[in-house]
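Support case: acetyl coenzyme *A complex. Customer-provided input:
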Amino acid sequence: PQNVGILAMEVYFPATAVRQDELEDHDKASKGKYTIGLGQDILAFCTDWEDVISMSMTVVQSLFEKYEIAPDRIGRLDVGSETIVDKSKAIKTWLMKLFEESGNADIEGVDSTNACYGGTAALFNCVDWVESTAWDGRFALVVATDSAVYAEGPARPSGGAGAVAMLIGPDAPLVIDRRCSATHMEHAYDFYKPNLASEYPVVDGHLSQKCYLMALSSCYRRFCTKFQKIQGRQFSLMEADFLVFHSPYNKLVQKSFARLVFEDFSRNKSFVDEAVAETFHHFSKLSLEESYTNRDLEKASQQVAKSQYNEKVIPGTLIPKQIGNTYTVSLYAGLASLIHNKADSLVGKRILMFSYGSGLASSMFTVCAEQGLHPFNLSGIQEKLDLSARLASRTMVSPEEFGITMSLMETRYGAKSFTPESEYKVLQPGTFYLTEVDDLYRRSYARV
Ligand code: ACO
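Agent response - structure generated as follows:
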């Protein structure tokens, strides 16, 4: 098969959300801390009517309906998630309910978990399956779903919730180039979930930021080496038309792009303008370690990278800014934002993607935008995503009610024998929702 990649995609986010400026006031944080400091506008969250399973069912069913995909045309389904509902039973197995009627139970793949990296692991599995001898001519389906919730405190505004489904096959409008994927993995305790009785992570926020930037640099250098070997020429950011980053909060995306501009300077001064080289020259004596935490370098690089950031990065930031961190979903929510903003004008363009999951696992790879074959093309995806209308039609909940919901959700995590009771039963048509968790922890769902 040729040009294997993403044929179609659908994104889902809960209709319940809270504005970051209101959250700032409520939390008595200094004005601008969440909106400018973290760069976030709105945070989407699940009430007890929704969870990662219902969101994954909603997004898959919606993809099937919008693209008229019969469930028996799927031969592999991989799920990425770090929101643990069950320590054994994969989210994938719940999704099999959507295939029951078609009689299709012949579907490989289960769940992948490592913080925010699971979606990328699932994507690589599906692309590799289509490119392998195991491929039987059917589509693969990648699903990522997460609810990012934090204990009260500075990390809480960096939460979010959502799901994405991506149909994988040949002749795609978004071709994944597996030859050049570069990976960096190592052990770190930056963000982890050792307490199985709580949905909240243990997080060292500042260390996680440093680990993210270190992994980014490492992947970029490895990526450049591979690119040169395969293409016979050096890679620099001039070769990337757009960049999409895993987005825990937008400020880290700004810092990440700026870091890559500094990486280009460090590799070859001719990759950056003279004025930029002049600015970076003052920092060329910093050790690699110091360069990840030096505040002056951080500010200077964000400054010199700004115009390129506006052009190459902002188009892929809409959904993450509007719904918050969605862990495994985040990078692909960024890709959907780019399609929303650029659609067909992306054809022929190279998109550089960076995936990061704490603990830590990270990869950089490229997506090449192509014409695709009807009905799988970029303007079709843009139209079916219908993002502006969907983002605008949400229900904004007050910070007080958001806090009350978070407290309610703490009592739901790992619980049995309950039916949802949140007064915010805000569900658009087509949304799956939880109806009951029985006394054997068995979950039931219905669809609006
Ligand atoms: N106006 C404008 N900017 C402000 C204001 C203000 N009033 N107040 C603070 N800021 C800026 C700060 O200067 C800082 O920006 P900078 O880093 O560019 O200087 C930013 O806002 C955040 O302020 P901090 O004091 O660093 O914030 P705090 O320590 O309270 O929390 C953090 C931020 C660490 C990101 C926290 O939200 C967190 O732990 N989040 C979860 C961890 C995370 O997402 N890590 C990322 C990778 S791992 C993953 O994906 C889960």
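The two ends are 38 Å apart (CA to CA).

Case will auto-close in a few days if no follow-up is received.
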